[in-house]
Amino acid sequence: MNWACCVPSPGVPLELKWLFEHALVPLLRNRYHLAETITYRVLKVVGLGESAIDDQIGEPIAASSNPNVGVLAHPGQVDVRVAAKEASAADAAALIEPVEREVRRILGEHVFGADEDTLEAAVGPLLRARTLTVASHEDVTGGMLAQTLSTAAEGDFLQGIVTSLGAEEASDGGVAARRAADLAARCGAGATVAVHGVPLPGGGGENLRPGQTVVAVVVGDRVEERRFGWAGTGTADRTRTTRYALALLREALLR
User: Fold this and answer.
1) CATH 3.90.950.20: which residues of the chain?
2) Residue 222 in 3-state DSSP?
3) What CATH number does the domain located at 13-114 have?
4) Helix, strand or coil, per DSSP, at residue 158
């Protein structure tokens, strides 16, 4: 029975990836006489929801068969995957290139990277290019924003304040913007990010818990603010809010 085979593999991701690309794929090609390869490019998008992206790039999606275009949503981020099948990876990449170029043209600055790029890696160089330090004040995200900013800014991350959802600040009332401005004055950071969540009483759930979250960014004299219709402390909501906060910081730094 040579139509199937079982290949034990290591659990360490880096080892598995190397063995898959350099040993398993050639083995399967030779054993099953595979003549084509599938190559893909994943564009990373923030600041737009899945349905908005579908609306904007609907024509490339509908018109594509090889390569084909797909959209995959994550908390606070959407991936646009362009995949092509050809005899070689180089030939597949040549098919992908014009479609990728068109998607980037349509979505503009909402595309922050591709493949293994992270939003942190996109924000860090923008801070360094303007020689800005950064600090954060957050409640509903529980420290996730500070951790992410410290990775992005490295030694330029000055301070991260994490507070609880106190009853004295149960309503919005410009809390996030005041926190960001006060933090900038107190620690001297060139850019500050504040997140304040107001969950609705009795709400629950790990994902899109009802409420309101406000993100405020101060860069120099400029204040940017966004409001979102959730306020959960579960992993999905904290991840979503942290990514939107980083996206707003990136947007302010690009201006």
Assistant:
1) 119-254
2) strand
3) 3.30.70.2860
4) strand
Residue 46, number of CB atoms within 10 A of its CB:
21
pLDDT digits (tens, 9 = 90+) for 84-105: 998 888 999 999 999 999 999 9
- Going by C-alpha positions, the residue among 177, 137, 140 that lies closest to residue 161 is 137
DSSP state of 200: P
pLDDT band at 35 (very low <50, low <70, confident <90, very high): low
Determine the Cα–Cα distance for residues 250 and 195; give it in Å rounded to an integer: 15
Other beta carbons within 10 angstroms of residue 243's beta carbon come to: 22
The correct answer on CATH 3.90.950.20 for the domain covering 119-254 is yes
Closest CA to 79 of 115, 55, 43, 131: 43
Q: Where in the chain is the domain with CATH 3.30.70.2860?
A: 13-114
**Helices 144-153, 235-254: inter-axial angle, 10-degree rounding:** 40
